[in-house]
Amino acid sequence: MLAQRVAGRSGLLKYCLRENLTGKCQSRRYLARRSSPVYDVCIVGGGIVGLGTARALNLKYPDLKIVVLEKEKELATHQTGHNSGVIHMGIYYTPGSLKARLCVDGALRTYEYCDERAIPYNRCGKLIVATNEEEVSRLDVLYDKGLQNKVPGLALVDRKEILEIEPYCTGGLKAIHSPNTGIVDWRRVACSYGDDFRTNGGTILTGQEVTKIKDVGREIRVDCKDRTRITTKHVITCAGLYSDRISEKAGGKRSPTIVPFRGEYLELRADKRHLVRGNIYPVPNPKFPFLGVHFTPRMDGSVWVGPNAVLAGAREGYSWSTVNTRDLAEMASFRGLWKLAVPNLQYGMKEMAKSAILPLQLADLTRFIPEVKMTDLVRGSAGVRAQAMRDDGTLVDDFEFDESCPGMLHVRNAPSPAATSSLAIADLVVDRAAQCFAL
Questions:
Q1: Which long-range contacts (CB under 8 A, 24 or more apart) does 290-293 make?
Q2: Count of Cβ atoms closer than 10 Å to residue 437 Cβ
Q3: Which band of pLDDT confidence, cut at 50, 70 and 90, is reported for residue 357?
Q4: C-alpha 360: how far from chain center
Q5: What are the E-state strand segments in 131-228?
Q6: pLDDT on residue 359
Q7: 236 neighbors 53 (Cβ within 8 angstroms)
Q8: H helices then E strands: how many in the chain?
Q9: What angle do CA 33, 247, 92 make, to 5 degrees?
């Protein structure tokens, strides 16, 4: 008799209302849902780090049910899709740092992966060129770093050898030659990671902007802007430009804060591409995390020149006309940015002037290739760097993770060379997740 009275959902509701058991019935439904999460792991972020992590996690734990959430309609559209396309070899980074270890390992694995998947690349090499005596002394220090990091094939070359490698680079006195530095389409690599993941049973949901992450005990609920709710046991966030906000949504720390810096590129006209064979880089200024204006060939045959480094008006501010009032307000109220900006105001103003007045960039280029003229250049693409910064204005230079939220692992900082290091970073994240989540 009872079964007939409560048959179906409407019958159950009527029975509960009559017996004043509605709250009890809802509680039972809630507990049943909590005890059976839909996914084992939810990864927030469909860039190269998030997709690489999903792939590695799936390969190591094939029985786990894993989902990737990406807020855009397509994968890898921001930092992954707007970088210079260089396969770095780990020359610049502090010996013993995660950057150094993961870059060297990641570069070699990238070439192997591209060979396995028939993804084209060009091992075109790289020169880091000193054009004056002060830069020569810094170049020697940089070379020692590269040797300590065990960068393969590294060599110091003189002016004659520079011209043998790059015939038009007549401004160089001395250089570091890295023959194994290359170029690749990193977005294509990232999407290949996604294909591997899906082929092995993983789920990728695009157009899913995460608005809330809540630990409710036996499960974690991830809510999205379109009212989609993902229920999962564990969460890994690889949110790039939004890593601080996503961490905060999950109950984690906001610091370090992401400050967006736009890097704008010029391009050599097609009839001037012969001036550059491989990557030509300056000796970097150790005060800043940027590598300086350089010449970079691309897989499509073009040659990018740049980038500069200017504060962006939005986290997705790929042009001066793109401004987000929330992003601007947060930057204006962030004391860490002011502590960095005030002592470096002259440098920042100079970079902004170069962005607006193209001829001001020419002097940086003719130091290496005097033959380049303003008429040889056109405006090109731009990218936005998610620069993590602490409240005291210190720039976070290495990869950083946050494990403070139960059941969650946040990748808080994954700066360049994150693309080159992506396979190695993914393994590191998976190992940390295995410990945090007791997989």
A1: 290/261, 290/263, 291/92, 291/416, 292/364, 293/361, 293/364, 293/365
A2: 19
A3: confident
A4: 29
A5: 155-158, 174-178, 182-184, 203-206, 210-215, 220-224
A6: 86
A7: yes
A8: 14, 20
A9: 135
How far apart are the C-alpha atoms of 244 and 86, rounded to whole Å?
26
> Among 253, 236, 200, 264, which Cα is nearest to 46's?
236
Count of beta carbons in the 10 Å neighbourhood of residue 225: 12
pTM to 2 decimal places: 0.89
Q: Which two tokens stand for residue 426?
A: 């993914």
The three-state secondary structure class of 384 is strand
- The span from the CA of 44 to the CA of 238, in Å, is 6
- Inter-axis angle of helices 422-437 and 48-60, nearest 10: 60
283 contacts 346 by C-beta, under 8 angstroms: no
Nearest alpha carbon to residue 298 among 184, 192, 219: 184
- Tokens found for residue 326: 């929330």
DSSP secondary structure string for all residues of 319-382: STT---HHHHHHHHH-HHHHHHHGGGHHHHHHHHHHHH-THHHHHHHHTT-TT--GGGEEEEEE
Residue 312 is given by DSSP the state -
Q: Whose structure tokens read 């897989």?
A: 299
Q: Which residues pair with 42 in a beta bridge?
A: 67, 235
Integer Cα distance of 342 and 350 in angstroms: 14
**Which residue type is seen at 374?**
M
Strand order through the sheet with 86-87: 86-87, 182-184, 121-122
Residue 240 has pLDDT above 70, yes or no: yes
In whole angstroms, what is the distance from residue 16 CA to residue 237 CA?
A: 41
Place of tokens 């002011």: 338
Mean pLDDT across the chain, nearest whole number? 90
In the chain, % helix, strand, coil (3-state, to 5) comes to 40, 25, 35
Using one digit for the tens of pLDDT, what is the confidence trace for 323-355?
999 999 999 999 999 999 999 888 889 889 888
Rounded to the nearest 10 degrees, the angle between the axes of helix 186-199 and helix 98-117 is 70
Cα(153)–Cα(177) distance, integer angstroms: 8
Looking only at the bridges linking them, the beta strands covering 310-311 and 257-268 are: antiparallel
The kind and range of the H/E element at 267 are strand 257-268
Phi/psi for 226 (5° steps) reads: -90, 15
Q: What gap in Å lies between CA 194 and CA 274, rounded to an integer?
A: 35
- The mean pLDDT value for 216-220 works out to 91
Closest C-alpha to 108, from 132, 84, 129, 90: 90
Rounded to an integer, what distance in angstroms lies between the CA atom of residue 91 and that of residue 95? 9
Q: Is 138 exposed, middle or buried (0-12, 13-18, 19+ CB in 10 A)?
A: middle
